[in-house]
Structures are given as structure tokens and as C-alpha cells.
Amino acid sequence: MGANKRLSSQVGLYRVSMQSGLLTTIAAGTATAGHVFCFRWTSATLSAVVQRIKLRWQTTVPFTTAQELAFRVFRLTGYTAAHTTGTAATLTAPNLKKATRLAASAVNDIRIGTAAALTAGTHTLDAQEIGGLNAFSQATAVADCTAVEAVIECSSQLNYVLELTTNEGFIVRNEIVQGVVGVGRLLVEVDWAESA
User: Fold this and answer.
1) What pLDDT digit, counting tens, does each position of 67-94 carry?
2) 37 — alpha (psi -120 to 50), left (phi > 0) or beta?
3) What is the pTM of this model?
């Protein structure tokens, strides 16, 4: 009921797809380390109603030692200063809009790591993640071509949407320190509605 009420007042539908650079030796995640993707919402008049988050990891150069890889999605509150470095999404119209007739998105900042993690902003992470992706990379002389992905669905009738209000957002964080030599790319896709 609440989700349907919120979606009935939507003013626009949006999507972003971002691919990282060649990430390597990313630190294990903390409140300020290992952040590889961020989505920051600052509007005081609209909410971002996140409907889907997709994560996809591709190892392009194998690690010296086989290892587990893990990424987690955390909601942020008190998000008063944006992450920096990395590659920022182009937010100007008509980018991100699912229909060109829509207004430009009110999102404040979306960015992904290049060769390294992002520099953290000012925020508070929830203690519990809302989704994630696990993978395993073999140590071989040939690049591990296996790609893995996870989709976090937030919009079905069984799952209440993730609603972001002023100075909220989410990050994707690396959880296990990445060993030497290994390299990979992370793809992140987000679908959301903007609601009054």
C-alpha cells in the first residue's frame, strides 16, 4: 500500500549504468574505505524511489592467489558531503531520463571508481547491508573470464522500495581486500523513480 501510494505520485523515471575503470588492490570496506560506487540524493522536495540495483563483476587479470571477492550495498544517512575522485555520471538532461519528456533528474551525485576506490564523503552507513555480490577468482596464468552478477529488486509487491530523502544515498563497498596483481571491472546499474 505504502509503495503503491509513493509510486502513484512519481514525477519521473530514471536509469544509470556505470562501468568502473580497471580496479585493483581495493581495500576492505570500512565507513570510509573500499567504496567503489556512490549515489547521493539531496533534494528537499523530491524523493528517490530506488527500484533496482544491479552489480556485475568481471575479473580481467587473475590474482596471484585465488581469492573470494565480495561487494555490499549500504544505505547512507547524514550524507552531507559527496564522495570525490572516480568518474562522475553526466547528470544534465537528457541523460538518465527513461523518457525525454521528463524533467532532468534531481540526483546530486553518482560516481564510480576508476583504478582505485572513491574518496569518502561525510555520511553514516547503516550497520546492515541491503544487498551484495560474492565471487571467487582463480589464480591462473590466463585471465578469469567468468563474470558474476546480482540484482537487488526493490519494487515488487513483496519488497518495499528503497526510498531516499534529503541527504541520503547508498554505496557499493568492497568487503575483502583485493590481493596483488588482480584486476577487474565493476558494472553498476540503478533504476529509480522521483516522487513528490
Assistant:
1) 899 999 999 999 999 999 999 999 999 9
2) beta
3) 0.92
